[in-house]
Amino acid sequence: MKILVINAGSSSLKYQLINMEDESVLAKGLCERIGVEGGNIVYKTGDGKVFKKEKFFNSHTEAFSELVELLTTGESAVVSDVSEISAVGHRVVQGAEKFSKSVIIDKEVLDAIIEVSPLAPLHNPAAVSGIKACMEVFPKDIPMVAVFDTAFHQTMPEKAYIFGIPYEYYEKYHIRRYGFHGTSHRYVSARLAENLGKPIEELKIVTCHLGNGSSIAAVDRGRSIDTSMGFTPLDGIIMGTRSGGIDPSIVTFLQEKEGLSYEEVNNILNKKSGFIGVSGISTDSRDLVNASLEGDPRAQLTCDIVRYQVKKYIGAYAAAMGGIDALAFAGGIGENSLHMRAEVCKDMEFLGIKIDPELNVKYDRTEHDISAPDARVKTWIIATNEELLIARDARDLISK
Ligand code: ADP
Question: What is the pTM (predicted TM-score) of this model?
Answer without folding.
Answer: 0.96
